[in-house]
Amino acid sequence: MTTILHRILEEKELEVQQLKTLDNGEQPANKYTHYSFIEILRAADQVAIIAEFKRASPSKGDINLLLSPSDQGKDYVAAGADAISVLTDAPFFKGAVADLEEVRKVVDVPILCKDFIIDEVQIDRAKRVGANIILLIVAALSPNRLAELYQYALSQQLEILIEVHSEEEAILAIGLGAKLIGVNNRNLKTFEVDLKTTEALAPLIKQAGAYLISESGIRSVDDVKRVVKAGANGILVGEAFMKHENVTQMMNEMKISLKAGK
């Protein structure tokens, strides 16, 4: 049975082919300031928040098509976001690389390029427009390709959030020496969401000494407390922030002490 993930990856193959016809082979220049999310996590005494700019998704449909990336980015930082994630996939999430570039021009926090990365050319593009972190999804890559892209991103002075959904995937991420591991509470094959995924994988990830980011399905303070209690250092929140009328209030409520969650 063809899953949503399979359909997305088929589209990514076409996108990569198009990018390669336009790529001149030059390494992306370091024209943007380096911002480290790992350093933020190292010093944090509160849960770190990655606030996501996300127009739509295959599971939810249109979320908010009217928001300006730059305005929302500024609002996120003013509200206390530690980093910003920008969804750059066009066919399924109605995003654009230009959205990330717009946000980069107005914020001074780390930016995550949230996409289905399967090739080095996408990493080059992300760096070129100002990303500091790229996402590598274990479910979307073979172990060899995952390792190759991980090492390539490191060589480009980028931080890597490796996304996992199972113990097997977590072990692969740990084996690479990943410092940032994101547990996606959403199953990318069915798009069902369950915070138990973070709770189940947290002990393994924390024992390895990696920073744990809980992704998807976090909508309330109780959700934040639950994943922090499990061991999360940070959370990635998109839909809840994109829909909320008062992002500052919601983010302030979610900014709980890492000790308070224990």
Task: Give a structural overview.
This protein is an alpha/beta fold and 262 residues long. The chain has a single domain (4-254), classed as Aldolase class I (TIM Barrel), CATH 3.20.20.70. It has 11 helices and 10 strands. The strands form 2 sheets. An 8-stranded parallel beta barrel has the order 1-4-5-6-7-8-9-10, surrounded by 7 helices. A two-stranded antiparallel sheet has the order 2-3. The N and C termini lie far apart (41 Å). The mean pLDDT is 92.
Query: Radius of gyration, Cα only, in angstroms?
Result: 17 Å
**Percent of residues in helical segments?**
40-55%
The CATH topology comes to TIM Barrel
- The CATH first-level class comes to Alpha Beta
Number of domains: 1
Which stretches of 5+ consecutive residues score pLDDT under 50?
none
- The assembly state of the depicted protein chains is single chain
Beta-strand residue percentage: 15-25%
Helix-strand string: HHEEEHEHEHEHEHEHEHEHH
Instruction: List the total number of helices.
Output: 11
The count of β-strands is: 10
| Overall geometric form | globular
Named at the architecture level, the CATH assignment is Alpha-Beta Barrel
Q: Kindly, what is the distance between the CA atoms of the first and last residues, rounded to a whole number of angstroms? A: 41 Å
Strands across the major sheet, in which order?
1-4-5-6-7-8-9-10
- Helix and strand composition category: alpha/beta
Q: In the CATH hierarchy, what is the superfamily?
A: Aldolase class I
In short:
The chain is of the alpha/beta class and 262 residues long. It has 11 helices and 10 strands. The chain is globular, with a radius of gyration of 17 Å.
